[in-house]
Design brief:
The chain is about 25% helix and about 30% strand. It is an alpha+beta fold. Among the domains are: about 5-270, Glycoside hydrolase 38, N terminal domain (7-stranded beta/alpha barrel); about 490-725, Beta-galactosidase, Chain A, domain 5, CATH 2.70.98; about 760-834, no CATH class.
Length: about 850
């Protein structure tokens, strides 16, 4: 074997938020950088590696001289910028869109400040990695990947260096140090060097990466460490010791693999998981709004980009960039996983709130601009009567949808006194873009003021909406309204039962749970959909050492019971059952809806949680043998392996999903908030909330330390749905999170038709991951991903005309730049980080 080379890679892992808030974390980035620069000035060989563009931006803004020194060392090849993201994100919980946008922002920053984007990702401390991450990183221009979690004792892989292959075939050269961690103690360097040499014995690998430097709150290499390295190198002349960088290490390993043959490094396919599993459900109070902000930002971006392009030819696109920046920072691996202190959590919640507000503002600006160009005129009102309200119904998805839509509007400027005490008898109607009456059902308004006086009305109706398009509806108070009867109406045949001919949902006081039938088949057996409280004494991260009892949380504290049932809605469009379940000191209120012609049960859940060292699980006993989970960048199939991270949807099979074995999908589940699941005794169990302590790494029993606050006590809300689990499931999940918008708009005489479509994409399985104005202002960037189950030729219609995109590889994220040449749009293959 050739002489081995130790690549000494100095770094200073710095959590910008953890046991401190963002101000302290970012300011420490300045102090750490100054100290490292002083050491580099003293020692002409020393190199340093730094990722996280949020830290660079903070230094640039608040300490320009230090930033100029960093840039000079970057130009000299001694300071290395890696990662290409705002922060070291959690890669199990953030969405595909958030992770890709973080690279768009980060790589763009590195290119503009240092002349080139990163080619190597460095996830020093992130808690495991999604099976789809290679596709996201490859799309962002990343060629290699270094990480430390999970360690070899949790996830054995043949060699410390391997090819990591995504579901679309994208490959990254991956490096995981087999000894030590991303930092080191002050006196540890000689032992680390000895340990790594020993760990690489028998691998045949010549190039060995050594991550060293103090870390967790900055720090980096010290003078003692550098002296110890030089002394060790003098004592080991058989080893080449080189101050290096991650890029140099990965380039050397790639060249070594080329010399030694295609099979020299093993290939790993699938996820790099699991570790610190409590993070999949810690701090629902932060996780839930993060997911909702992701959904609002995605919907706003597609809407604003599409509408701006239609109205201005793509020259002046509204942007949700600031919202994505907020999401990118809050995807950090101690924020989104919920392992930060309470004070820091409150700051990050405020940050998320600002991001959501900015995204909603961008979307509203776009829809108002569109409405101003649409013919939204209404019929002249009768004398001293209010005019009908024009309502813009907008579909933010590039495929046609037909779904129940709720609409609320004020029918007059003051309460309508003539109908005092006869609120339900107020005559009004809903008409479509051609003036045709539409069937609808009155439902309760959101306000409880003046219940005996009609003023505002809220309805639900089933609408078919064109892809990325609109319909102009009107809703108004009239003396003789036309309200057509709905076909195949929903019903509430008796107390405690709702039915739409497809699903029947029933509950009774004293029962264990909610019974659900799909076309006559009981989905959840005699127990029904139910809840249990189980013991969970573990801290924020769960079991710090993968203790078996932390992976299978099943020690029962409380089996919940149904304590109240009421039929809330019964009408032709929708029937709704309200069910209260209680256990211990907590309760859950469910509003379960079945809508006409809809192959899904829609559920709104409100949790009142008051427990300690405990976890609430929603149990769906459906004969589960294995399940397919949506994860960032793709999907993952898992069996009964304890707590696992899941995304927007889960498809449950009765056996291993092998076509030859005849596995059958028995359930589809989607939510707008939940992240953590397990399979147990044939049931899919979703963790709703857990009561641990803030930033805690110890076991604490419920009775211990009553003065330390338990997380997530209080009220939480989320939504979920149940489907058969077929091809419709991913689309239903996206519609759950990003429903159509129905907003009252001012009447105006615009030139656009009262119904229209701006963008169409098929087949429906293709997902829009990113659609925005290019960072350089030259056209629009469109990133799409097709499921890994099959390649597809994307059929793309833009502004009413076909635009050629071409064939997409299964699982890959493909990006095009759309340009407008005198009214003719063209698409060219592009990187999303361009």
């Amino acid at each position: 074997m050739d002489r081995r080379v130790l690549h000494l890679i100095g770094n200073a892992h710095l959590d910008p938020v953890w046991s401190w808030d963002w101000r302290e974390g970012l300011n420490e980035g300045i102090a750490t950088s100054r100290a490292i620069l002083e050491l580099m000035d003293e020692d002409g060989d020393l190199t340093f590696t730094r990722g996280e563009t949020a830290l660079y931006a903070h230094i640039e803004a608040h300490d320009p001289p230090t930033f100029r020194r960093i840039r000079s060392y970057v130009e000299a090849g001694r300071w290395e910028a890696v990662g290409g993201t705002e922060v070291q994100s959690d890669t199990n919980l953030a969405s595909t869109a958030t992770l890709l946008h973080s690279h768009v922002l980060g790589q763009g920053y590195l290119r503009s400040r240092f002349g080139a984007p990163a080619r190597v990702a460095w996830f020093a401390d992130s808690f495991g990695h999604s099976a789809g991450l290679p596709e996201i990183l490859a799309a962002a221009g990343i060629e290699a990947f270094a990480f430390s979690r999970p360690g070899p004792q949790v996830l054995p892989i043949g060699k410390p260096v391997f090819w990591w292959e995504g579901s679309g075939g994208s490959r990254l050269l991956a490096y995981r140090p087999p000894a030590g961690w991303y930092g080191c103690e002050r006196d540890e360097v000689p032992r680390r060097l000895d340990g790594l040499l020993s760990a690489f014995d028998g691998t045949g690998i010549e190039n060995i990466g050594v991550l060293y430097g103090l870390g967790n709150h900055g720090g980096g290499p010290s003078r003692r460490m550098v002296a110890d390295i030089r002394a060790w190198a003098a004592a080991h002349p058989e080893v080449q010791v080189s101050f290096s960088t991650l890029h140099r290490l990965m380039d050397a390993l790639r060249e070594e693999g080329r010399r030694k043959g295609a099979d020299f490094f093993p290939v790993h396919r699938g996820e790099l998981n699991f570790c610190l599993r409590g993070c999949y459900s810690s701090l629902a109070r932060l996780k839930f709004p993060f997911r909702r902000t992701e959904a609002v930002a995605s919907r706003a971006e597609r809407t604003a980009t599409t509408v701006s392009a239609a109205l201005s030819g793509g020259k002046d696109a509204l942007t949700a960039r600031n919202a994505w920046a907020g999401l990118a920072f809050n995807s950090f691996h101690d924020v989104l996983p919920g392992s930060l202190i309470e004070r820091a959590m409150e700051d990050q919640l405020a940050w998320l709130g600002g991001a959501m507000h900015r995204a909603r503002g961008v979307e509203n600006d776009a829809l108002l601009a569109l409405a101003d160009r649409i013919d939204t005129t209404v019929a002249a009102p009768e004398p001293d009567r209010p005019a009908p309200v024009p309502i813009l119904a907008w579909n933010p998805h590039p495929a046609q949808i037909e779904v129940p839509v709720e609409i609320e509007a004020a029918l007059d400027y003051r309460p309508i006194w003539a109908y005092k005490g006869r609120v339900a008898q107020l005559p009004f109607e809903l008409r479509d873009e051609e003036g045709r009456p539409l069937p609808f059902q009155q439902i309760p308004t959101e306000h409880l003021a003046m219940p005996d006086l009609p003023w505002r009305k809220r309805i639900v109706t089933r609408l078919r909406l064109p892809p990325m398009g609109w319909r102009l509806l009107t809703m108004g108070f009239v003396d003789h309204p036309e309200v057509p009867e709905a076909e195949t109406p929903a019903s509430a045949p008796r107390a405690g039962v709702v039915d739409n001919g497809i699903y029947r949902v029933a509950a009774r006081v004293g029962g264990r749970g909610v019974r659900v039938q799909h076309r006559g088949r009981n989905l959840f057996g005699s127990a029904g959909l139910h809840f249990i409280t189980v013991e969970d004494p573990f801290g924020s991260w769960g079991g710090m050492n993968e203790e078996p009892e932390s992976l299978d949380l099943s020690t029962l504290i409380a089996a919940w019971k149904v304590t109240a049932v009421r039929t809330m809605e019964k009408g032709p469009q929708r029937a709704m059952l309200w069910v209260r379940l209680e256990g211990g000191r907590s309760r859950v209120d469910l509003r379960l809806s079945v809508s006409r012609m809809r192959e899904a049960v829609d559920v709104e859940a409100r949790v009142f949680w008051d427990e300690r060292s405990a976890r609430l699980k929603m149990v769906l006993p459906c004969g589960a043998g294995t399940a397919e989970f949506e994860v960032p960048g793709g999907t993952a199939v898992r069996g009964a392996v304890g707590e696992v991270p899941g995304g927007r949807w889960v498809r449950v099979f009765d056996a291993v999903p092998d076509a030859a074995a005849g596995a059958v999908s028995v359930l589809g589940f989607a939510s707008d908030a939940l992240f953590s699941f397990d399979l147990k005794r044939g049931a899919l169990r979703a963790t709703v909330v857990r009561a641990t302590r803030y930033s805690c790494d110890r076991r604490i029993a419920a009775s211990e330390e009553p003065w330390t606050p338990a997380t997530d006590c209080g009220e939480l809300r989320f939504r979920f749905l149940l489907t058969p689990g077929g091809e419709e499931l991913p689309s239903e999940a996206w519609l759950l999170e990003e429903p159509p918008v129905a907003v009252p708009v001012p009447a105006s005489s615009g030139e656009l038709a009262r119904a229209g479509s701006l963008m169409r994409l098929s087949p429906t399985g293709i997902r829009v991951v990113l659609f925005k104005q290019a960072e350089d202002g030259d056209g629009l960037l469109l990133s799409l991903q097709v499921p890994a189950c099959g390649a597809a030729t994307a059929e793309f219609e833009w502004m009413g005309k076909p635009v050629t995109l071409g064939r997409m590889e299964p699982g890959r994220i493909s990006t095009w730049r759309l340009r407008n040449h005198n009214g003719r749009w063209t698409a060219t293959s592009e990187s999303p980080t361009a």
